[in-house]
Amino acid sequence: MTVFWNKGMLKPIMDQLPLFSVPARWTVAELTRYLRQLLESDDMLQAIWVQGEISNLARPASGHLYFTLKDSAASLRCVMWRSEVSRLRLALQDGMAVEVHGGIRVYEPQGQYQLQADAIRPLGEGALYQEFLRLKAALEAEGLFDPARKRPIPERPRLIGIVTSPTGAALRDMLNTLRRRYPLADVILAPSPVQGDEAPPGLVAALQTLNRLARPDVILLARGGGSLEDLWAFNDERVVRAVFASEAPVITGVGHETDLTLADFAADLRAPTPTAAAELATPITMQDLQARLTETTARLGVAMSALFERQRSVLDGLQGNLHFFSPIRRVQTERQRLDELTRRRGTAQAHRLVLERSQLEGLERRLSALNPLAVLNRGYAVVTHKRDNRIVSSRLAVKSDDDLSVRVTDGEFDVRVTQ
Amino acid sequence: MGKSVDPQPVDEMAYEQAFAELEGIVSILESEQRPLEEAMALFERGQTLAKRCVGLLDKAEIKVRQLTGEEAEDFVEE
Question: pLDDT, tens digit, for every residue of B64-76?
Fold first, then answer.
């Protein structure tokens, strides 16, 4: 037993308990309560690791866990409440060497002190963890975890390599995920034990053979959940170096969310679980492809319609030009002009006719006013020589016996000059 | 594209290849002026490629093989 007892704590605790003013005689309950307060208020006893061997393991229907932790010299009652039991990652059995974490409590009805456990790990895991930290630091210093060396994961893998147990649930989960997300890819499995002594060389050989023979676009290195011991192969230096040396980028999916292995640090991408690793290996899914295909096909149609539209508008423009410069159009234009002229000339002519008519009438009136014969109406006569039709306007123009013609308003008659 | 005398038969194309060529054709039709006849030919090839892609997606199924020693053989799930 490695429970440490700090005697120096006793006095200040007594000072804090004024009700217990050192009775002359203790009752059992008083003494037990005193001891309880004493032990449970000692900080040294509240978060301790105790190592020993499990015995008298009991798991009643309540779900709580009772056992005794013992070594060659002493024993310690332990209890683990159901809520903590559910987080236990290791199957306990009698005889198992473990380290138990918890705090000391006193169970008053039985007058027993016990360890109330909240975590149990196999004995030696602490040492394993120290080794883990040492190796991690060494490999980190060597540059195996350098973020700059991480390679991008291909968006659309053609061939996905898987290194895992051929019989595990991890493989089934990964294949289901890959089928659902990206069935265009093919899968090549390099089987390997994933726990035990044969796991590290098996994993190394699987990684190497896969890279050499199949040349996958990406490799999933995976294992389902298990105890820290179960996952230990993924902390093996040989495995970590094989991950680092892989030609294809490696995605690890080992254990559960909370498990971090050295292989995870060396991998190009770390996934919390095998299923998540398969998801990270297929960043583009069938749904994405279908959506892109639909969009691209639509763009093809739009581009073609746009091209037709452009072509048509060019054609329309040409047709317009053709029409504008066509000889038929010129003929039509000329004809129209002619019509226009004709119409305008018709109007002008009508005007002139009216004008001319009125001028004509004026002239006629004036002409008739000037008609010498008009005066004949008033009894005048026009006398002319018969021989030459010359008008006789003087008495000197005639002599006796000249034959003259006299014109009056309604006709002529002949006369002879007598004197 | 367009100038290639003997383009690969669409029926033999993998999805990535067919889709890449389809995208190329679309961007040509969207951005470049091509003679109508050539554009029509591109469009028809684009349609064939799109059909090929749809067909490949419809019948896509993962093929799982297993390495045993130096050989790869079909993997049968339990």
Answer: 999 987 777 888 7
Ramachandran assignment for A215, one of left (phi > 0), alpha (psi -120 to 50 degrees), beta (any other): left
* Residue A255, token pair as written in the block: 């254990």
Spatial separation of the C-alpha atoms in residues A372 and A98, rounded to whole Å: 169
Nearest to A186 among B23, B63, B77 (CB): B63
- Whether A304 and B39 lie within 8 Å, measured CB to CB: yes
Measure the CA–CA gap between B23 and B17, rounded to whole angstroms: 10
Which residue is associated with the tokens 């010299």?
A73
pLDDT band at A350 (very low <50, low <70, confident <90, very high): confident
DSSP string, A39-53: HHT-GGGTSEEEEEE
Claim: this prediction has a pTM higher than 0.90: no
Predicted ipTM of the assembly: 0.83
Calculate the average pLDDT of chain A. Answer: 87
A1 has a pLDDT exceeding 50: no
Q: Give first-to-last CA distance, chain A, whole Å.
A: 204
Of B46, B56, B64, the CB nearest to A187: B64
DSSP conformation class of A214: I
Q: Taking CB atoms and an 8 Å limit, are A188 and B66 in contact across chains? A: yes
Name the pairing type of β-strands A97-107 and A112-122.
antiparallel
**Which range, of A48-52, A235-239, A244-248, A331-335, averages the lowest pLDDT?**
A331-335
Residues of A in contact with B76 (CB under 8 A): none
- Nearest-angstrom CA–CA distance, A120 and A87: 10
Q: Please give the Cα distance from A39 to A2 (Å, whole number).
A: 16
One DSSP character per residue, A249-296 reads: -EEEEESSTT---HHHHHSSEEESSHHHHHHHT-SS-HHHHHHHHHHH
CB A257 within 8 A of CB A203: no
Task: Give residue-wise pLDDT tens across range B7-28.
Answer: 778 888 988 899 999 999 999 9
Minimal CA separation from B9 to chain A, in Å:
19
Q: Any CB–CB contact under 8 A between A309 and chain B?
A: no
For residues A39, A44, A50, A54, the Cα torsion angle rounded to the nearest 10 degrees is 20
Task: Determine, for residues B50 and A293 on separate chains, whether the beta-carbon distance falls below 8 Å.
Answer: yes
